[in-house]
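As a warm-up, study this chain.
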Amino acid sequence: MKKLNFFGNIISTIKVYALALVIFSSFRLILFIGEIDRIDNTVPMSDILYSFIMGIRFDIVICGYIMIIPYVLLTINFLFIRANILNAISFYFILIFFSLAFFVVAADIPYFNQFFSRFSVTAFEWADNPVFVFKMIIEEPRYWLYIIPLIISLVVFYKVLRKIIYSKNVINMGTRLWLQTSISIVFLTIIFIGIRGRIEEKSPIRTGTAYFCNNPFLNQLGLNPNFTLIRSLLDKFKEENKPIELMANDIAIANVQKYLNIKRLNSAFPIQREQNEIDSNTNFKNIVIVIMESMSAAKMGIHGNKDNLTPFLDRIAKSGYYFENTYTSGIHTFNGIFSTIFSYPALFRQHPLKGSSMLKYHGIATTTKKHGYSSIYFTTHDAQFDNVEGFLLANDFEKIVSKKDYPADKVKTTLGVPDDFMFEFSIPILNELHKKGKPFLSVFMTASDHGPYYIPDYFKPKNTEIKKQIVEYADYSLEKFMQLSTKQPWYKNTLFVFVADHGAPMSALYDLSLDHNHSPLIFYQPNIIKESKVFSKMAGQIDVFPSIMGLLKIPFDNNTLGINLFNEERPYIYFNADDKYGVIDQTWLLIVKRDNSVGLFRYTEKDLTNYEKQYPDIVKQMKEYAESNLQVFQYLIKKQKI
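Now compare it with the structure written out below.
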């Protein structure tokens, strides 16, 4: 008697998923066993189990991509046609693509052992000679052992797949056809959800999703190398990810070494310089950095705004160290996070946080970790947006607090909880860090001054326009945080730094809105800063990290393009706006577009005349300064000297 199966298409697909997941997990287990020495006694078993669960999530993504077409064919066949040819097409499609996927996970094991990185397009670029990499791997005899589980997997998969696809399933073509069709469509939707990997609306699954703890091996264990390979290949061909070529690397390096006044050259790290002498009496202060969403300097009263939007910021700017000519590296939040924490500039449209290869930078968390600091990052919304969580965990931040950690009823919009609630929520967490008896680094990323706007009922703004009201609320939230902080035992030993992620294009006389990059930069702590001062020197967001180290006299190797603003100066500061960059001093603004068209303006006079032809030497100097710095950063990325 023939078997009656109303949902043979779905059941067959689930069986293929299950079979593939078992094989993927088996290779993950082999990788784990081979790298077991990377797991010490401090790693909890829950983290190990979670990395395997995370692996299933990424495996489901790969299964989904492979199974979309076969599922549609199987569904048509089961519901309407019942032709053997469709079964055959589905069978060979699944067999071929899963065989390739299994080959990648097998090849990934020796690759990971060699490079401590999951398989990616980099494997074909390393040393500009992919044959060299291939030979280097296959000439190690023990790597051949992984061919055995690959062959076993392919044989098992072939035999079981034949039974799954060619099983006799007779479909009732009667009154239940509409139900079977509807459920088949629902299941197709589930496949697409599996491909997306996450149900959160702000971001699908990314490489950084796998980074959940402080063990670098477990963070990578959950990844499927097919995912990292495909993702890296797609990233490679994105226009924004193409490396810039503004000048020869050797010329750029020589120029930057001159700009940074580097005397002792390090051939391995061409811009590295030791800063702050080691002092055994150094009292390591807590560091709190608040990156303020869209807080353009133009919103502040101290810069001439008449709407009284930022009374708190204006007040502490006059009570601490204030750098009035500070500019953010780019015009996106990810630019602001990256440049503030790691002190490197924005490179046009390149997205440093979302690369398929999670690069390791020597940023502020890594530096302070060497001196015994704890580190934590707070955001109001989904930490996976812009790949922030994974990137920061890969770069020595110990904990990320985000939407998933807050009470559900406090989440008001896509941007998560209001700013003041995030700050209030952070206080007991910072108190717990303080109780550990060591200093902490805490970075906050606010979000309220970004649509969709939400203002709590208990806050009563004075202005009537929502865009002004939200700035008032953002300023109120900062003041509330400081009021709460002053009551804590760690307050007097904590340096507070306030900077914008980027500004807002409130006015735009030129092709590049200065308000979009002009940012407040405030160093505040009455117990550390005894006498307030306003600095007029040119400053960048990239200078925040080295300046904190300098102010607190924390020794570190500065391998960034930032400077210590308290004892160094730069002639210009440069910034990016996707398809153009700007260079600015206290007189001139230079704007250079990707087509190399140039504009030179006396921006302080709001003069619209382009002085490019009249002052070619100024154009040359400013252009060379910016392009040298940008090219050096591109070089450091390519050579992984970061």
